[in-house]
Amino acid sequence: MKKVILSLTVLALAICSTSCVTDHAQPIEEPMRFQSAPFVSQLKAPIGIALDESGNIWVTEAGTGNNNDDASIAMITPSGQKTVFVAGLKSITNLGSVEGPSKLLYKDAKLYFLHGVNGKLYIADVSAFKPGDAPVSLAAIPSHDIRGFVEKQQYTNPVNSNAFELAFGPDNNLYIVDAGGNAIIKRDQATGELSEFATLPKTAEGKDAVPTGIVYDGSKFLVSILTGVPFTAGAAKIYQITPAGVVSEYKTNFTTLIGITLSVNNKPIVIQHGTFGMGFTAGTGKVLDENGNTLLDGLSQPTDIVRYGEKTYYLVSYKDGTISKLSY
Fold first, then answer.
1. Cα–Cα distance between 72 and 70 in angstroms, integer?
2. CATH code for position 143
3. Fewer CB under 10 Å: which end of the chain, C or N?
4. Per-residue model confidence as pLDDT tens digits over 285-300
């Protein structure tokens, strides 16, 4: 009997030596300050970024803004090798800013990207695409009309639509942020049907919310807003939206938020595009935590951020044409 008890005790200790440490592991601390290192440069007005399971970065390039078709989507390997996935997307200049494809999302070997200029969502199968491959034809990628639905709702006067960002929700459906319509649109993954999920209120000054980022943290959506011109300091917010579509304030007193991601602890990390005077002032972009604490500053018009692993992030700078690697 003693041998049996002893054997069970040894077994319990052996199990605890491998599993109990995990059960009582120390939580990973939140970032207090980021270190930034260059990763990729010479991109043409990059706006959105996404990561696949191999660590490849997918990025949208808005192009030159010369009312031509030189905007594109590219894949960049962890070593920095860039391969254009699709070219020939419309690039325009609107109120001094270059616009083309905006944000994008990767899931299950498919790339979902928005092109607010022509009001479409594209869904591309990228399972066979490899570094060094020739670009695929834009015409071969299935597209879906977003603008038509948003404009029909007449959310704004004059009617406006700019499909800008997207995220998957708890039901595996797609949620699309329309910065022009100040609304979140739900796309049923099974049927493709679009429906209104939520609308965002105007600011205290009566300006449009201009939502720019969305994430789902496991219980609620978090949405960042840019606000409309004149981009008043302190007017931007992070909203929270329940899965039932109920909107409320989460955090306030931000300026020109243009992107949002989640830390390893599901805390929002947001991007300040910059302060506005005669245009956006160089060097006034920032990465901030949910309480408005500065994690990285001195940036020129950052537009998107994504986390890789536990403590590494990639940041897009639209003005500089770069992707930086952040760590802490």
1. 6
2. 2.120.10.30
3. N
4. 999 999 999 999 999 9
